[in-house]
């Protein structure tokens, strides 16, 4: 709770001394490879100032890559006075803001001017003031009305890059800082908007050019007062970067992973590939599963120490696994995820790995076990332009040997409306919405909830419990339209047309075109035609009643159904009226197409459907799905006495289904079955 | 939840229980605390056998050392068999026991699986060094190699059962120490002492109580609009504690009604981290009127034949559709707490419905944005500029910004080489040349690296003298121009860009 890394202030020494060279010549003259007889250029060196700016920027780069929010860094530059580069506000917590500020600050003033007090003290004083200012989240917590509001502890860290004369000088710096901290806390206590600093961690980085021996000695962290812990690191300027990138590990509890064995094309020789390593930083929690997990394996996991300009730290080496298939497309058992950043951001191996990931591919990382085996322990993947390390579970699972869904409740039912539910899911896919502050009342989540309720108002879960959803060719798009929260004029007409078309079909004594799938409902043919219509009308009524309170338009559709049904029951003559209405509604009666086609293919001379057909189907089904009734058995017995000759095609076919026009699928011809289907 | 039963086998466990004789007169042997403990453990195993068959149990015995008698298993009878032949050892050492337990659990389940630790002892915390009192007193002394085993390095719950009567004088010393232990362990850990006289019955009741308190199954309702099913979660979710920089939210529990908020394709979900995973097992459920539909069979007695497998369940439908569509259902577990339900197959390709609990909160998966701001797709169409997943952060990370980094010399060298490569291909590469040049110049100015600008000017001047004769004369003109510009105060201003000099080779854009 209340970690020191929430607020960090960098104090950069911008006094004239920092304008001097680090005396560490750079190899910037890259013509050397081109030939020997070149005039060498005068060597260039970074100044102390450039070194401290780039190292502190690198520190921020890592912090903000890994923790885009919640870990705040401010910059104060100190020369004759303190210059504040940014505030705690989230909008100023980014590198480009700081870089712009640094460009405006420019190089340290060249010479001492008489009467001007150049000192890093100005900056330290302002840094303490900055720590007493609340960050956005601190302000929110302090002003919240919960009991925790008063318990808020304000911790922070000041990292000061300077160059002191000697240890005495450093001691006085310490005293001034502690004094100032105590003073500022007194001020903060009397103020409404400032919070006293409960604890401050002061890190002083004393740098000096390569050709100078410093009189300042390093000091390990020590509690100066309950308010202040202080440490001093003294080093040559070029070592500043590695010192800071070492310190950052403990400041933010980070760990290093070296991804090893990354295959990469050679620049010179594109046909071969060599293996490279890339080191990344991330929160140390990403390793806790493998380092704290299994004590045997964590002892065996290879952690190499890296030595770089005097500082050392551990890195866990994990092996690149060339991705097979799409590991991102399935739900991995991920126990932790953390953002990563490459340690060496612009190097070729780093950018190769980064681009590979940013392009949407993911990489599994493999951990070697002493036993000789290997385990996939992590997954690297980019999401929305940010790269994460996912820690995958390597331990035994308590879900070992689970039952299959088919062994449980409802597992042996085979006619679920899975395709329809898939459609419902696709219609209720979630997308990110920007919360509109002007939107009053329900947010997107609440809207989604009422939408799902609307979509499931009438939703039989098995095929054998519904007629209307099995008659899509007649009913569509009625169900789809009715689940909307409102209907347009055209949509109302469309719905009514569907009802009328159905009515027309019934009037023509057409059997419902039920598909022959599962359950027991289909196939009873002419025998149960009227019963089917009765059930369908009933079901439609339930469905429409369910949606009646969606809008007035929905009521209109329901009323239409109720009206035609009543008419139908009372007086058959009224049907003609309804049919005339239907004709008036529009010629483009797509939904009636099925019956129209049926009408054209049936010649007046067509015999009534052969009962043995439906019987055959019925028997076929009955043996599988339904117990036979006495009627079934009687019908079966009476079947051979059928007077009508069997359809010629069926005699030659294998089962009760006969293929029509078997010669039709000759090469070059378009299959016509769909047209003939009815 | 895997369980470790740690049984004290110190000599004090073999003390006879006063006033309690073996039930059968044939068995004249006096009952000891050890007998009662075994009896109690058997009662616990019996409870698991009937109520919680999927729990893994391991048996560890301890004195001044520990020994794994039975590794984790679901075969409770094998544990029972081992229980019969346990030999007594020396003295009680609870710290050793807990170290042993931690090793056993971490080796098997890692640091994220919630576990139960049941410590069975006699209320006698041991004497001398390595006694419990001694261990607890040295807590604050820094122990680098051997930290105290509590709190558990995994989500664990400690239950201490004392086979001692309430009046036992030893308890007066032991009990406060056990209280310390469970405080350290946290997570609703408890100390249990049999009620009343120390008898077979009271001990059995005590273990029964423990089992009922610790192995509560989770039964709830999975709701999707008007559809739904009663469900059973295995293993039951544990109360969760969320720690952030500014608050600790303890005791977060999953609501009994889990409501589906909508669907997202599994690829978009992208394996976020989960605090735990649970199988969602359907229970027989009355159909809601919305699911009922119509009955096409008059003789619909198939549903009453008592076969649960034949009664349609929403969970099976949901599982089928999630699997076919490769989607996951986002569901609300409690206020501001979400999870995902999806189809999961184990190594044997047995497919089932799985629920993963996300970290509590609404803004926990960066690429999905705030979960409470997810809504139907038609709402997005009305507003412009909405695109879908992934949600991108407002700022790019450093690795996708291509910002110069000169901490290592190579970085600086490659930036300079890039500019020189462009320079040799002038005038075609005029734009790239000036773009890279100004990028480098701006970076140098931000870092106060004016020495570089001077150095770069000298490089260009020398480069002019080295150009092969067949190169376009524009190279010389532009590089000379740049070298001159770099030395002027004009180029030391961030806002000023160096622009190409107009030549006859340079076609007007």
TrEMBL record, chain A:
Record bears the keyword Iron: no
Spans annotated as Disordered: 641-678
Basic and acidic residues: bias regions: 641-651, 666-678
GO CC aspect terms: integrator complex; perinuclear region of cytoplasm
One Pfam family from the record: Mat89Bb
Compartmental location: Cytoplasm, Perinuclear region; Nucleus
Keywords: Cell cycle, Cell division, Coiled coil, Cytoplasm, Developmental protein, Differentiation, Meiosis, Mitosis, Nucleus, Spermatogenesis
Single Gene Ontology BP annotation: spermatogenesis
Similarity comment: Belongs to the Integrator subunit 13 family.
Subunit structure: Belongs to the multiprotein complex Integrator, at least composed of IntS1, IntS2, IntS3, IntS4, omd/IntS5, IntS6, defl/IntS7, IntS8, IntS9, IntS10, IntS11, IntS12, asun/IntS13, IntS14 and IntS15. The core complex associates with protein phosphatase 2A subunits mts/PP2A and Pp2A-29B, to form the Integrator-PP2A (INTAC) complex.
Listed name of the protein: Protein asunder
Organism per entry: Cephus cinctus (Wheat stem sawfly)
From TrEMBL, chain B:
InterPro entries: INTS14, IntS14_b-barrel, IntS14_C, VWF_A, vWFA_dom_sf
Major subcellular location class: nucleus
Any one Pfam family match given in the protein's UniProt record, by short name: VWA_2
Transmembrane segments: none
Cellular component, GO annotation: integrator complex
GO annotation terms (biological process): snRNA 3'-end processing
Region (Disordered): 286-306
Residue ranges, compositional bias (Acidic residues): 296-306
UniProt domain Integrator complex subunit 14 C-terminal: residue ranges: 405-506
UniProt entry keywords in alphabetical sequence: Nucleus
Subcellular localization, as worded in the UniProt entry: Nucleus
Family in the record: Belongs to the Integrator subunit 14 family.
Protein name: Integrator complex subunit 14
Species the sequence originates in: Cephus cinctus
